[in-house]
Design goal:
The protein is of the alpha+beta class and about 425 residues long. It contains eleven helices and 19 strands.
């Protein structure tokens, strides 16, 4: 029996800082069809379609699919009723990120502290409980359509157990071959289940190597970046990690500004972008134009320990990435390895020809280097995309690649008629 109450479960570590963030609990996407979207992310990016909460498990208003890879947890949600918020948002914005949820020691206390710090509540604390444990969640609003949920867990729903394959939440069931396991109270089915079984087995044998969410980027309107910087400073007690202005991020045609906010332990990093004046339209403004002039998450950066393997695996699955001109590689090695030698760091160990052949960007700073590559938009609207990033010491964001990256983005914008 599952119950939902307003009274949260008692949480351990009651003396901890209420806003101490333990992990990215999950990222929730609102999508038009969760089952179909689950197949897309599983096939293209190697995610396991692990659990479901839908009509068969007791949800009456929406279907939710849990996808996992490494320490990444995506919840894909679709409304089952005309007035469900996800249906309204998908109509306005297309598929995209709704909630970046943080694991905390006590969700109610975290929510209370954030609200007392000036946050607007998205929803009040509520607890899902059954005989196995509890999940308490409460949410605040952030830029545009996005919210942050605080999540605290007890018993079988503790995050450590979830990482080991435990149930995500009451009313969620594991999928075995794409259907609810009979032991979980679902009748065995045939057909579509074998497809999910096949793709999950394929992904286990052919991993893409994505480990966890490195950072996520929010796009806001011109003039609003500093407003949201203050929000993260005051409400969530983040601090500024990096700052890039229009001199750092510009081409002949467009520019943007960005400030990177980080939690106290640097576990969570959220760059906030706003457009800057230019001859033509920036990628941030294009995002806003096709996102109902509403701020939102522009991209998620997913960390890998082996960029070459991950990019090769993703390309073999049909993922479309931005294309760089060959001239990029005529200068990159002198620039990157020169910076590394200047600071006494080891030069790039990855095979240069493979990096070139796979179209990967490389950058360096005083701490080391990184490799990164950006997908094209994940849907027909030019909004959400992914970044695949590997860090070899560098904790920056590829400043040396900004010009080449933005010129590649502008080529795509021009093809779409949006530059």
């Amino acid at each position: 029996m599952t119950t939902i109450s307003r009274q949260p479960a008692a949480a351990p570590h009651s003396n901890a800082d209420p806003l101490q963030l333990i992990d990215v609990d999950h990222v929730q996407f609102y999508v038009g069809n969760a089952k179909q979207a689950a197949f897309f992310y599983a096939h293209c990016f190697g995610f396991q379609i692990e659990q479901v909460g839908d009509l068969t498990t007791g949800y009456r208003d929406a279907a939710h699919y849990l996808l996992t890879q490494g320490n990444i947890r995506f919840i894909l949600s679709s409304g089952l009723t005309p007035t469900h918020p996800s249906n309204m948002e998908v109509a306005m914005y297309g598929d995209g990120v709704k909630d970046i949820a943080f694991t905390v020691f006590d969700a109610e206390k975290a929510w209370e502290k954030a609200v007392s710090n000036g946050a607007e509540s998205a929803y009040e604390p509520r607890t899902w409980r059954d005989e196995h444990g509890t999940v308490t969640m409460a949410g605040i609003r952030t830029f545009g359509r996005v919210c942050h949920s605080f999540v605290s867990r007890t018993g079988a729903y503790d995050l450590t157990k979830v990482k080991q394959g435990g149930l995500f939440k009451p009313k969620f069931k594991r999928l075995e071959g794409g259907v609810c396991a009979p032991a979980a109270g679902c009748a065995p089915q045939m057909g579509a289940g074998s497809s999910i079984l096949a793709i999950n087995e394929h992904n286990k044998k052919n991993p893409c190597g994505l480990k966890y969410v490195d950072h996520l980027v929010g796009n806001v309107e011109m003039g609003k970046m500093n407003h949201w910087v203050k929000f993260y400073e005051n409400v969530l007690e983040f601090s500024m990690f990096k700052h890039f202005d229009d001199k750092d991020i510009s081409t002949e045609y467009s520019a943007l500004m960005s400030k990177v906010m980080a939690s106290g332990n640097n576990l969570i990093k959220i760059p906030i972008n706003e457009p800057a004046p230019g001859k033509k339209k920036s990628q941030v403004q294009e995002y806003l134009d096709w996102h109902s002039n509403t701020p939102g998450v522009q991209h998620l950066a997913l960390r890998t320990d082996d960029e070459l393997h991950s990019i090769a695996a993703l390309r073999s699955r049909g993922v479309d990435f931005l294309t760089l001109p060959d001239t990029y590689y005529e200068q990159v090695w002198d620039r990157v390895n020169g910076t590394l030698r200047q600071h006494g760091k080891d030069v790039v160990k990855e095979d240069h020809k493979r990096v070139h052949d796979l179209g990967i960007l490389v950058d360096a700073d005083d701490e080391g280097y990184l490799l990164q590559l950006f997908t094209k938009p994940l849907q027909d609207r030019p909004t959400l995309f992914f970044e695949i990033i590997c860090r070899r010491g560098s904790q920056s964001f590829g400043k040396g690649n900004f010009k080449a990256l933005f010129e590649a983005l502008e080529i795509e914008q021009e093809r779409r008629g949006n530059l």
